[in-house]
Amino acid sequence: MSLLLDHGGVCLEASPGRLAVTGDVDFDMAAQLAEAGSGWLAEQLAGSRMELDLQGVEQVSSAALSVLLEWTRCARGAGIQIDSVRLSVPLLGLTRVAGLDALLPVAQTTSS
User: Fold this and answer.
1) Which of 56, 64, 66, 108 gets the most CB atoms within 10 Å of its CB?
2) Which DSSP string do the residues of 64-100 spell out, in sequence order?
3) pLDDT (tens digit per residue) in 45-59
4) How far are the Cα atoms of 40, 57, 81, 112 from residue 43, in angstroms, in the given order?
């Protein structure tokens, strides 16, 4: 596992086939997070399969959703298949309200 970003209580980790975020993503962190994840996605092989994991983001945040959408756009441009998107319960609720759950391969989320 590689640590791509650790700043302000937000961590971004990458492992083969997975990009994971923990912490409270706000608009101050969104640009750094989007850039770090997009850069890593650009280095992956076309045809790769990926999971985006935001289960560790407990604060409801449209900033986190904007990062997720940016990564999805970057993955599509790089020829990477997003197999699943894992969201925390609060983010899943926001995604549903925004109507994005129909556009993303959202995996079943369980509350802890």
Assistant:
1) 64
2) HHHHHHHHHHHHHHTT-EEEEEEE-HHHHHHHHHHT-
3) 999 999 999 999 988
4) 5, 25, 14, 34
